[in-house]
Specification:
Blueprint: H1 2-34, H2 38-50, H3 54-66, H4 73-80, H5 89-100, E1 109-111, E2 116-118, E3 135-136, E4 143-144, H6 149-156, E5 162-168, E6 177-183, H7 186-193, H8 199-207, H9 212-218, H10 224-232, H11 239-244, H12 248-253, H13 257-266, H14 270-279, H15 283-292, H16 296-303, H17 309-318, H18 322-330, H19 335-344, H20 348-356, H21 363-368, H22 372-377, H23 381-390, H24 394-403, H25 407-416, H26 420-428, H27 433-442, H28 446-453, H29 459-468, H30 472-481, H31 485-494, H32 498-505, H33 511-520, H34 524-533, H35 537-546, H36 550-558, H37 565-570, H38 574-578, H39 583-592, H40 596-605, H41 609-618, H42 622-629, H43 635-644, H44 648-663
Antiparallel strand pairs: 1-2, 3-4, 5-6
C-alpha cells in the first residue's frame, strides 16, 4: 500500500511540474501577445481551446482579454476551431465574446425587454479585474448562461437604454453578487412601467424619472413599493401623493367618501387602506373595492360593510381567498341564496352553515337534520330524494336511497350525490341497462363503475370493460360477469393485465386452449391457472413431459393417475434417483423431473453425450446445465456454451472443462 501511495504522490508531483511548465510557457506567450505579436496570440487561442488543464486554459483566456484589439483573423480562426475539451461557461462565453470582437468595456450590457445580458461577474475562480460573461434577467429568471453565439451578436448590435450590472459584493473566495440597474431616458421609463419586471429594478428606474405625468401614472401601480417610490417623486401638494402616502391618522380624519375610496385603492400601506375602508359608507364605492382591490384584507374589510345580497353571493362564489369568501357568507341573510348554497355548494362546511342560518321552520332544515327514524316515517318520494342528497347524517341518506323506487330520482343520486357510498347504493337499485352502461364506462369513480358492471347483462360491453378499464377492480369484476366462452377465450389470450388473463382462464372450458395457454403464456401465474383447469389426461401428459417450466410440469403430473409412469418420472426425488442405474430412465428424469436437484443427480449419472449437450444448452436451471457441461467431451459444444450461456458459472465450467480435455 505504501508503494502505491509513493507512486501516486510522485505522479501528482510530476503532473504539477508539467502544469507549472505549461503556465510558464503561457505567461511568456501572454507577454508577447500583449506586445502585439499576433502569432503568440494565435498560440494562446490554441491553448485556450485545447489544453487539458482548466487553470492553463483560463490564464490563456485572460491573456487574450488583455491583448490589443481587434484580434487578427488567424487568432479568431483558431478560436472558432472545434474544441476537444468540455469548457465551463466562463470559457465558452469569453471565447464567443472574443470571436465577435466585443470590446471588454462593452461587456456589462443588458437589453431589458428582451431579457438578454452580458455582464461583468467576479467569481473566486477568476482573478480580480477579469470578467465572466453571463446572460441575465428574463421574466422568470435573474440570470442564466447563454448557449449560442447569436445571443452575443444580437446584444452587441443594439443601442442600449437600460442596463443591469452584476457586481461582486465581496472578493476572494466568497462571492456575494449584487445586481443594479443602470438606465437612461426611455429605458428607465420602459423598466418602470413593465409590471413583469422585478420590483427592485422598477423602483430603481422610478428614482431616475422626472416626467410628472409618467410618475403619476406609476403612482397608481399595483405594486405598493413601486407606487410609493413614484409618489415620493411627485410634488408635495400633488393630490396623488397625498393619497398614496396617506397615514392611518389621515384616513381616520378624512370624511370625503371619494378621497377615502382613493386612499383605499391606492395607499402604499395596506393598513391605511383598511382604515379608509372602515370610514366608507358609500355602497357603490365599497362594492368596487370588495371586487377589485388587490389586497385580500382590504377586500375583506369592504365586504364586511356591504349589504347587497346578490353582490355578497357573487363574492362568496368567486373570490380567490377563503377569508374573503367566508366574510361574504357571514353577511348573507337572503333565504333563497342560503338555500342554494345549502343544496349545491361543494364545501360541506358552508352547506351546513347555510342550513343553520335558515329559519327553524324552513323545509331545508328538516331535510338536512333528518334521521333514519324520520326517513322511515316519510312516504313522499321527492322529499326522500332530497334527504338522500342533502341530509347531514350518512345513515339517513343511505336509508333514503333504500326507500326510493323512482328510477329518475335514483339516477340523479347515482350521478350527482356528493358521497360515493350513497351513489353506490343508488346504482345498485338502477335497472336501466343503457344508464348502467353509461355509468360503467364513464363514471370517474372506480367503485361506482364496478357496481354498475355487476348489474350489466351485455356480454360484449362487459368484455370491453374487462380489457380496457383503468381500474383493476373494475376489470376483475367484469371478467367475473362474463360467461361467453368466445369472449373469455379472447381475454385469456390477449389481455394486457396478466391477473385478468388468469381470471379469464379460470372460467374457460376449452381443453385445447387451456393446454396452449399452459405451454405459452408469458406469466407463470397464468400457466399454472391453465393447468389447474385441465382435465384431459393426454394434454396433461403432454404438458408434464414437454413444458419448459418445471413448476408447470409438476402441476400437470400431479393431475395424472398415481400409477402413471410419467407422474413417477416427474415426481422422482433426489434419493430415488440415486438408486436408479437404467440410462433410459435416468435420461427421462434428467429431462423432465420437476425437482431440479433430482435432474442434476440424474445428469451426473448420464453417459449419453447428445442428451448431455441438449441439457447443457436448454435446462432452465444453471446448476443442471453446469452438471451437464462437466460431463461433456465435445469441445466444439463446450466452446459454444462458454461464449453464449447467460450464467457466468456455466461459462466458467465450460472453459474449465475445455482446458481439462486439451491437457489429456
Amino acid at each position: 500500500m505504501n508503494r502505491w501511495l509513493i507512486l501516486f504522490c510522485a505522479f501528482l508531483l510530476f503532473a504539477g511540474m508539467l502544469i507549472g511548465e505549461d503556465l510558464a510557457a503561457v505567461e511568456k506567450l501572454a507577454a508577447e501577445c500583449s506586445a502585439g505579436n499576433q502569432e503568440a496570440c494565435r498560440k494562446l487561442a490554441d491553448i485556450a481551446g485545447n489544453h487539458k488543464d482548466e487553470s492553463v486554459r483560463e490564464v490563456a483566456f485572460i491573456a487574450l482579454i488583455k491583448a490589443p484589439k481587434p484580434l487578427s483573423t488567424e487568432v479568431i480562426a483558431q478560436l472558432k476551431k472545434p474544441q476537444k475539451i468540455k469548457h465551463n461557461d466562463w470559457e465558452k462565453n469569453t471565447c464567443r465574446a472574443l470571436i465577435k470582437g466585443i470590446p471588454e468595456e462593452r461587456w456589462p450590457i443588458v437589453i431589458s425587454k428582451e431579457g438578454v445580458t452580458i455582464s461583468p461577474l467576479m467569481g473566486y475562480s477568476v482573478p480580480p479585474g477579469h470578467y465572466n460573461l453571463t446572460a441575465s434577467f428574463s421574466k422568470r429568471s435573474h440570470f442564466f448562461n447563454m448557449e449560442s453565439e447569436s445571443d452575443i451578436s444580437f446584444s452587441a448590435s443594439l443601442e442600449l437604454d437600460a442596463v443591469y450590472e452584476i457586481y461582486s459584493g465581496e472578493t476572494g473566495f466568497h462571492w456575494n453578487p449584487g445586481i443594479r440597474l443602470i438606465c437612461k431616458g426611455q429605458g428607465c421609463a420602459s423598466v418602470a412601467k413593465n409590471t413583469d419586471e422585478n420590483w427592485e429594478f422598477r423602483e430603481a428606474a422610478v428614482e431616475k424619472l422626472t416626467d410628472q405625468k409618467l410618475l403619476a401614472y406609476i403612482a397608481r401601480d399595483k405594486d405598493e413599493r413601486v407606487r410609493k417610490a413614484a409618489a415620493m417623486k411627485l410634488p408635495v401638494d400633488h393630490p396623488l401623493r397625498r393619497v398614496v402616502l396617506a397615514s392611518e391618522e389621515d384616513a381616520r380624519r378624512i370624511t370625503d367618501q371619494t378621497l377615502l375610496a382613493d386612499i383605499a385603492k391606492s395607499a402604499a400601506d395596506w393598513r391605511v387602506r383598511i382604515a379608509a375602508v372602515e370610514k366608507l359608507t358609500d355602497q357603490t364605492l365599497l362594492a368596487d373595492i370588495a371586487r377589485n382591490n388587490t389586497i385580500s384584507d382590504v377586500r375583506k374589510a369592504a365586504v364586511e360593510k356591504l349589504t347587497d345580497q346578490a353582490l355578497l353571493a357573487d363574492i362568496f362564489s368567486n373570490d380567490e381567498f377563503y377569508d374573503v369568501r367566508k366574510a361574504a357568507f357571514e353577511k348573507l341573510t337572503d333565504e333563497g341564496i342560503l338555500a342554494g348554497i345549502a343544496r349545491n355548494n361543494k364545501d360541506s362546511f358552508f352547506r351546513k352553515a347555510a342550513v343553520e342560518k335558515l329559519p327553524a321552520d324552513h323545509q331545508l332544515r328538516r331535510i338536512f337534520l333528518a334521521s333514519v327514524k324520520d326517513v322511515a316515517e316519510i312516504t313522499d318520494q321527492k322529499l326522500i330524494s332530497e334527504i338522500a342528497n342533502l341530509a347531514n347524517d350518512l345513515f339517513a341518506r343511505k336509508a333514503a336511497v333504500q326507500k326510493l323506487t323512482d328510477q329518475a330520482m335514483l339516477t340523479d343520486i347515482a350521478k350527482s350525490a356528493a358521497d360515493w357510498r350513497v351513489r353506490k347504493d343508488a346504482v345498485e337499485k338502477l335497472t336501466d341497462q343503457a344508464l348502467l352502461a353509461d355509468i360503467a364506462k364513464n363514471d370517474k369513480d372506480g367503485y361506482i363503475r364496478q357496481t354498475a358492471v355487476e348489474k350489466l347483462t351485455d356480454q360484449a360491453l362487459v368484455a370491453d370493460i374487462a380489457r380496457n378499464d383503468e381500474h383493476g377492480g373494475v376489470r376483475m369484476t367484469a371478467v367475473k360477469k362474463l360467461t361467453d366462452q368466445a369472449l373469455l377465450s379472447d381475454i385469456a389470450r390477449s389481455a394486457i393485465d396478466y391477473s385478468i388473463r388468469s381470471l379469464a382462464v379460470e372460467k374457460l372450458t376449452d381443453q385445447a386452449l387451456l393446454a396452449a395457454i399452459a405451454r405459452n403464456d408469458k406469466k407463470w401465474e397464468v400457466r399454472m391457472a391453465a393447468v389447474e383447469k385441465l382435465t384431459d389426461q393426454a394434454l396433461l401428459a403432454d404438458i408434464a413431459w414437454n413444458a419448459k417450466d418445471s413448476d408447470v410440469r409438476k402441476a400437470a403430473a400431479r393431475k395424472l393417475p398415481a400409477d402413471h409412469q410419467l407422474r413417477k418420472i416427474i415426481m422422482t426425488s433426489e434419493e430415488e434417483v440415486g438408486k436408479i442405474k437404467d440410462q433410459t430412465l435416468l435420461a427421462d428424469i434428467a429431462k423432465s423431473a420437476a425437482d431440479y436437484v433430482a435432474r442434476k443427480v440424474a445428469v451426473e449419472k448420464l453417459t449419453n453425450q447428445a442428451l448431455l449437450a441438449d441439457i447443457a444448452r436448454n435446462d432452465e436451471y444453471y446448476d443442471v446445465r453446469k452438471a451437464a457441461v462437466e460431463k461433456l467431451t465435445d469441445q466444439k459444444v463446450l466452446a459454444d456454451i462458454a461464449r453464449k450461456d447467460e450464467s457466468v458459472n456455466v461459462c466458467k465450467a465450460a472453459e474449465k472443462r475445455l482446458k481439462e480435455l486439451k491437457r489429456k
